[in-house]
Design brief:
Layout (H helix, E strand, L loop, with lengths): L8 H14 L3 E6 L13 H12 L4 E6 L6 H6 L6 E6 L6 E2 L4 E10 L20 E3 L4 H8 L3 H10 L15 H9 L5 E5 H10 L4 E5 L4 E2 L5 E2 L2 E8 L4 H13 L1 H11 L9
Parallel strand pairs: 1-2, 6-7
Antiparallel strand pairs: 3-11, 4-11, 5-7, 5-8, 5-11, 9-10
Keywords: Signal
Organism: Amaricoccus macauensis
Protein name: MxaJ protein
């Protein structure tokens, strides 16, 4: 029971009944700039999973929209008291109380189906013929390009994907949809991205694309390991452990619904213990 309050289905029902009587909504911070994970109108992947969770614990979902990138949701949303919950946080995030993981996935290569790929390890990025690489900034993808020795040759190209917007003192990134469309249109030989951020676009592309989860981690020259696979949890404000416990049970009891949402998006999954 890993030190948490033992929460049963009966206890969840009691929590739901109390929440419904109190009329308190489940306040979930949501970015307006994090498609396809979060989208105005509640059609984002994590918005839809939040709806399942809210219904399971007997609360009305209130998506608290913040017109900033997802990296600011904890600081400008949770810490500011605007919401109590963040969706899709890493399971080891110490900033919040985390639930059990509701899926595990990782960084992936996106290629056209007719593009030869020499394996599913990150080192395949070094293959000859994979010269133009589209990727999102500020994360492991950018680091992989550097370790593959192709960063300098792609610097101007990737900067062009943000219309050469200055990165100094400002969070600038390549839109997830753009990363995929660059491959689909033949402008890039390969793309690298966190799989849930691009799966919807890969699935809906007009040309056949393939998404390949990277199977290993990157080890820096100093021996530090950079993980490329992550378990995703619901993050809850530390002042509400009972809410975290209720969501924990809801994730188990409504796993089939959540899995169906993930499958519908085309998100490739990894075994929980991988």
């Amino acid at each position: 029971m890993n030190g948490r309050t033992f929460f049963t289905s009966v206890a969840l029902a009691a929590f739901a009944a109390g929440a419904a009587q109190a009329g308190e909504p489940l306040r979930v911070c949501a970015s307006t700039k994090d498609a396809p994970l979060s989208e105005k109108g509640g059609t984002g992947l994590e918005n839809r999973i939040a709806e399942v969770v809210a219904k399971a614990i007997g609360q009305e979902l209130e998506l608290v929209w913040i017109d900033k990138d997802a990296i600011y949701m904890a600081r400008d949303g949770l810490d500011a008291g605007l919401c109590d919950v963040l969706m899709g946080v890493d399971s080891d995030d110490e900033h919040v109380l985390t639930t059990r993981a509701y899926y595990r996935t990782g960084y992936a290569f996106i290629t056209r189906e007719d593009t030869a790929l020499g394996g599913d390890t990150w080192e395949a990025l070094g293959d000859a013929g994979l010269d133009t690489i589209a990727y999102r900034l500020h994360g492991p993808a950018e680091l992989l390009v550097k370790y593959a020795g192709k960063y300098e040759n792609n610097l101007i190209y990737v900067t062009s994907l943000t219309n050469f917007e200055d990165r100094r003192n400002k969070y600038t990134n390549v839109e997830a949809s753009r990363v995929v469309s660059e491959v689909a249109q033949g402008n890039a030989d390969i793309a690298i991205a966190f799989a849930p951020e691009v799966a919807r676009y890969v699935k809906s592309a007009r040309v056949p694309l393939r998404i390949t989860l990277i199977s290993n981690h990157l080890t820096r020259a100093n021996g530090q390991e950079v993980p490329l696979q992550f378990s995703q949890s619901v993050g809850v404000t530390k002042s509400k452990p009972e809410l975290r416990d209720a969501i924990d049970v809801a994730l188990v009891e409504h796993k089939a619904e959540i899995d169906a949402i993930l499958a519908g998006e085309g998100v490739p999954l990894l075994p929980p213990s991988s």
